[in-house]
Amino acid sequence: MKKYNLFGFAVILFSILFSQALYAQSIFDALLGKNDMSAKDKLRVKYIEGDSDVPEEILLINISGVIQEENDDGMPMRPSKNIIEELKKDLEVLTKRNSVKGALIEINSPGGEVTCSDIMFHLIKKANKETGKPIVAIIGSMGASGAYYVACGANKIYAHPTSIIGSIGVIMQSINIERLSQMIGVKPVVLKSERTPMKDILSPYRELTEQEKESLLLIVNNIYDRFINIVSESRELPKEDVIKLADGRIYTADKAKETALIDEIGYREDAFKKTCELAGIEKAALVKRIVKKGLGEFLGELAEINSGLPSLKNELKMLLETSGSPQIMLR
Q1: Domain limits at 204?
Q2: pLDDT band at 30 (very low <50, low <70, confident <90, very high)
Q3: Which of 29, 118, 142, 278 is an S-S bond match for 134, by CB 3.0 to 4.6 Å?
Q4: 75 pLDDT exceeds 50?
Q5: For the chain, what is the mean pLDDT?
């Protein structure tokens, strides 16, 4: 066995041995209030770039990866983060830290879950409305589907020259392995109440009925209509024009600007400058919220270093997502 695998297993074993102790410690700390960060600590930031000599700040917020809400099981060794809770914490800094005059949101995502995307869009719009502070989004390699949905919450949308943008649409998909299961001798057993014939809708072991297709398409089209309205209102475009663009295709940054899906093409410094302009300031420091990691989270991340766990975890997660309950995605 390779040395790096031995190291990974050793760290995992160490983490497991300490997990119960850490869990007990976390409960003890919670009882004593040690895990509660003060209001001042929650608003702490660190300098990234820009003019460090001026008091005004622009908050940098990162949204990357698949947009989906992780379930917090409360275990101290769990390294995953809740994307909605992280955004809430960032927007709290925007709202309550007086020196922060606006926010620059960097987005690099293929999209994700419908409701998660919608909540994030709502949070950004709400923070902008309540504070009056400008929010500018800049799309990285990709800002597709749910990620573009989220970007529509900003006052302005920038994109890098090589960004991929769009894919405005809604998808629900499953697989059908009926013939395969018959070939290998697998016979599903389904018991459902007589008045709920659609209870096993999108089962991989049978074809959809026409009635089931119609009911699912009604849901998908309703969410699609909401997506169209979001883009139309946010980008100030006629709904008919948005529908022409929203056929699921992706666009280059040049084409997205031509069709008004974005405002400008540029880099971080350009979007940063625009945020300052909208905030009515000439110069500012670009800052980021300071994230405090607990010992359990640190060890959980350490356990994945130089091991096969990250890729294995992603593969298992993908398998569970595609074979479990059907999901409606903006992806």
Answers
A1: 171-238
A2: very low
A3: 278
A4: no
A5: 83
Is residue 39 pLDDT above 80, yes or no?
A: no
Within this chain, do residues 181 and 99 fall inside the same structural domain, yes or no? no
Q: Is residue 243 part of a domain?
A: no
Is 199 one of the annotated active-site residues of the chain? yes
Q: Counting Cβ atoms within 10 Å, is residue 21 exposed (0-12), middle (13-18) or buried (19+)? A: exposed
Tokens of 54: 């001026």
Residue 244 lies in a domain: no
Catalytic residue among 15, 145, 163, 232, which? 145
Band the pLDDT of 12: cuts 50, 70, 90: low
Q: Across residues 314-324, what is the average pLDDT?
A: 52
User: Over 288-311, what HEC string results?
Assistant: EECCCCCHHHHHHHHCCCCCCHHH
Task: Lowest mean pLDDT of 83-97, 196-210, 223-237, 295-309, name the range.
Answer: 295-309
Domain count, the chain: 3
311 catalytic? Reply is no
Say whether both 222 and 179 belong to one domain. yes
Rounded distance, CA 255 to CA 241, Å? 14
Residue type, 44: R
147 in any annotated domain = yes
Which among 96, 192, 199, 213 is annotated as catalytic?
199
Could you tell me which residues come within 8 angstroms of residue 163 by beta carbon, excluding any fewer than 6 positions away? 139, 140, 141, 142, 143, 252, 253, 256
Residue with tokens 């809430």: 88
